[in-house]
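ESCALATION

Customer reports they have been waiting on this structure for their group meeting. Please prioritize. Original submission:
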Amino acid sequence: MDSAYYAKAIREQSKKLGHETLVKPPKRRCKNQEAPTPFTDEQKQRFKKRTIVEQLSGRLKDEFGGRIIYLKGAAKIMTHRMFGVVALTVDQLLRLAP
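Update from on-call: job pushed to the front of the queue and completed.
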């Protein structure tokens, strides 16, 4: 989630639903906002993992055809998505190769 989700109303609603919000506060805060509570070590690890997943999803959408699909039918769409995942995996492996 980006810093726009740091709004007090959103955080309170999330708390009512039993969710834990892991949103970094915006760099520039309004005067009437309370000071942010720092993440615990466990929260830092979960935030880091979520960030990696979001970056991977973003690459899949932006670079490997996941944003716009001109197909109909679940099987065709799944095949299209999986080709994108395969291409992304190959790209990541090639980045690891010396």
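Sent to customer with the following note: The radius of gyration is 18 Å.
Escalation resolved.
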